[in-house]
Amino acid sequence: MAAIVFSQEDSDQFIQAAINELDQDDGKLANNVSKVADWAVQVDEGFANVTYGLQNMYDKHGEDFPDLGTYNKEWKGYKEQWTAHLLLSRNIASKHAADLHRFNQVFLSMIQDIQTDQDREDVIAELGEFAKEDHTESADMAQRFKALKADIGGFLVRFEQWIQDTGTKLKQEAYDLSQAINKLEEKIKELDEEIVMATLALLASAAAAGTMIGVIELIVAGTTLAALLISRIEKTLDLSQKQKDLADVNRKQQALAQIKTQFDGLKPDIALICSKLALFGDIWASIQGQTLHFQQTLRRGMEALTDSRFKKEIELARKLCTPLRNGLEIYATQLGSRS
């Protein structure tokens, strides 16, 4: 598919439309930015639901499936990371609010106040210094949110695979036990028939026990019957154990089905967490990019200051700074009130 190319006129119209919308904003943009704090509440609720669900699975089925303990512990680690990242984002929001204020009141104001070529050179230098300021903490926070999103996505895949693999293993165990039970039942049936024949032989030998041959036959028949009875007892005990094992496997299969159903119910919360984490990870990048753009534009010379497009970009940037700053301040304040 070919890339969509916007003309200079289209781009200028977009900037002017954005300026017009901000002129009639009445605080809506600041409110939208502060809504990120509401996302935090939603993600908190999602984490709480999944944490409770996994703990409930482990409490009910952990004895049968010890791996649930590992997954439960892993998820709690993600929840702890989320809490730590959110506190970091609060601190960075406060810092960015201050940066936006400085960007607007100092640097953008300096651009609009340029009168001479020396002023322009001075502003380029000032913008360069501002753009080089250490924002690694902000970039690190964004990467942490994105890494957490990736880790949780991987957790979802691995847990589902564990359910599938465990189900396959239990199905094979149930099949093997059923086959073993069928063979044992057939063997016991054969032994019962042999015991009947051995019993008849023993009775016949007992009737002829008055002779030496009869005594020998009686001993042989008795020994054969005893061996058959011992074998039947062993097979019966083995059958009983296999039947218990099969009942246990069937119970585990039912438990695994419950785990799958319960985990399927948690997927919407996990999806919400991942979508919001992506938004948290993308929110902090615009200031430095704008700074570098304005610096490069000013390098063109004094004619940049008479460029109507450049003037509109500066105007739009200044109109964006205040509501963005206000929104970030609200965000930081709301997170600061979290218990």
From TrEMBL:
Coiled coil (UniProt feature): 167-201
Residues spanning the membrane: 197-230
Organism domain of life: Eukaryota
Keyword field: Coiled coil, Membrane, Transmembrane, Transmembrane helix
Full protein name: Putative reovirus sigma C capsid domain protein
Species whose genome carries this gene: Rhizoctonia solani 123E
